[in-house]
Amino acid sequence: MSFSVATTGRMESLAELFTSRATDSCHPGQAIFWEGDPATGTFRIHEGVLRLYRILPDGCRAVTGFAFAGDVLGIAFHDRYSYTAEAVTNVRYSRFSRERLRKLASESPALQHELFEVVADELSAAQEQMILLGQKSSEERVASFLLKNGLRVYGSDKKTIDFELPMTRLDMADYLGLTIETVCRSLTKLKQAKLVSFRGRHRVTLHKLAELARFAGEEELEILRDPDHHDPVVRSEPMPLPFQNDKSGRMHLVI
Amino acid sequence: MSFSVATTGRMESLAELFTSRATDSCHPGQAIFWEGDPATGTFRIHEGVLRLYRILPDGCRAVTGFAFAGDVLGIAFHDRYSYTAEAVTNVRYSRFSRERLRKLASESPALQHELFEVVADELSAAQEQMILLGQKSSEERVASFLLKNGLRVYGSDKKTIDFELPMTRLDMADYLGLTIETVCRSLTKLKQAKLVSFRGRHRVTLHKLAELARFAGEEELEILRDPDHHDPVVRSEPMPLPFQNDKSGRMHLVI
DNA sequence: CGCAAGGTTGACTGCAGTCAATAACCGTGG
DNA sequence: CCACGGTTATTGACTGCAGTCAACCTTGCG
Predict the structure, then answer these.
(1) Is B248 among the domain residues?
(2) Do B29 and A217 touch (CB under 8 A)?
(3) Domain end marker among A132, A149, A177
(4) CB distance from A199 to chain B under 8 Å?
């Protein structure tokens, strides 16, 4: 839900909870937890990037997301992890027992609310991704991906954004529902259109954000919410679009 | 999280909460709430089917899901509804204030847990859908869709399943990231393969479930969980697949 | 430097989208 | 009850985007 201000006993925030724990670290290619393992722990990423993926029955890999510094993993699972979390870069993280976290949450509405927000954000991200995968062309997907990653680091105020994109082209492809070759070709198109440029394989610069956003099929963008967490979710704007729908659910564009 | 047994004061379940409220109803094409409206209410569907969708900047419609009897909508939003919920059939439902629900939840770990489960299930469903949209062919998508809808009604024990599929082909298409024509062609293929048959446009029979599941690219299927709510989520099985991944995240099928 | 992993580009193919014509269905009214 | 009209569904012909296969290039590490 939204906005719970209540506190019970001493307030304890999710981030604090984790920083009170020891820090572990792992290296590129190592997993923090595996798809199918009993989900006993939750994890907060202090530094680095992970890929989150499943292996499908046919052996394909589906990357369902990436995790970055500040993200908390492992909250919303049922009894088993539904994906593997594997380091892309060096990663520092802390672990906290799910059991204990659940118990603490049942005593602290504030914490409860924070956990709820984490899951609600994940859900928003997943639905955004559903739309990307269901509706967008390859170039729109790649543009969206670059934009989202750029905006995670800075706000949307600057004209130009420069950042690191540590995952491989294959990671991007498996995340965007494309092949590695199509990702490359789309990147090339974006380079040719002078919307982005690369220094090496993993250092990106986004020029002309507004154009890139339009190209990506995103709404507006410059709405620029508070510099709170990652919240590129809005999208649900007033929506004065010229359509109407008749009694049976068919959509008609009026013009 | 999972399995909270604790109770605080008098236990009150989510379903009960709603059944204590008046029942509203709406007709095909009418919306219960609209994308972008302030999210003040939560809703439990007692009967009927709704389509949940967004309108994208370019005017396209993306169906993010369907809601059925027993489902609860409107829990995980931020301050605004992120999609429109529109009746496909006649729908009976109850409304409950989000504000009040939040307050009750902060006092009842049991209710809190129920809400958490609802959102966690939504997240599971969304990630399942991400995989469908990112990895599956048109025929696999349609087969998955039929199977999922069939299994919602019955378990997976029967050899044959017969059920109503009230949404239009366009709804399915917008949900599966396909066109209406491709949905039709896929249905035709499935009919020709004798895996399904139709009586009229909305009455489906699934024959040979196991084959259909294999065709849909689903794992096993006959695992047959408890006849609890809808829980087709498992998928995270032991996974003894013959692969290994080297230090940089590239997957190698060993054979 | 040399090699291997990762990335890019090109040629070709095929699946799903588009446009268009036809058929089935359903509610309404004669 | 049947006939009619509008909506929804199906099929066909053709196109085009993204996938496949293959060659080549870059980069970074031992």
Answers:
(1) no
(2) no
(3) A132
(4) no
Put simply, the answer to whether A59 touches B241 (Cβ < 8 Å) is yes
Q: How confident is the model at residue A241 (pLDDT cuts 50, 70, 90)?
A: very low
pLDDT of residue B224: 40
C-alpha distances out from residue B192 to B181, B187, B189, Å:
16, 9, 5
Q: What CATH code is carried by the domain that includes residue A68?
A: 2.60.120.10
Query: Which chain B residues touch A142 with a CB distance below 8 Å?
Result: none
The CA-to-CA distance between both ends of chain B, in Å, stands at 37
Domain assignment of residue A193, given as a range: 136-220
Query: Which residues of chain A make contact with B126, given a CB cutoff of 8 A?
Result: 123, 126-127, 130
Pair (A122, A148) in one structural domain: no
Q: Give the model confidence (pLDDT) of B148-187 as tens digits.
A: 999 998 877 788 999 999 999 999 999 999 999 999 999 9
Q: Do A92 and A160 belong to one domain?
A: no
B181 CB contact with strand D at below 7 Å: yes
Close Cβ partners of B209 (under 8 Å, ≥ 6 residues apart): B147, B150, B156, B158, B159, B160, B161, B221
**Interchain pair A29, B253: CB under 8 A:** no
Amino acid at B78: H
Strand D within 7 A of A249 CB = yes
Q: What pLDDT does residue A244 have?
A: 36
Residues A104, A156 within the same domain: no
Q: Which of A25, A69, A72, A66 is nearest to A46 (CA)?
A: A69
Residues 68-97 of B with CB under 8 A from A: 75-83, 86, 88
Provide, as residue numbers in chain B, all residues whose Cβ is less than 8 Å from the Cβ of A217. Answer: 56-58
Residue B91 counted as domain residue: yes
Contact A61 B131 (CB under 8 A): no
Judged against a pLDDT cut of 80, whether residue B73 lies above it is answered with yes
**Measured distance CA(A172)–CA(A146) in Å, rounded:** 10
Q: What's the confidence (pLDDT) of residue B233?
A: 35
**3-state SS class at A141:** helix
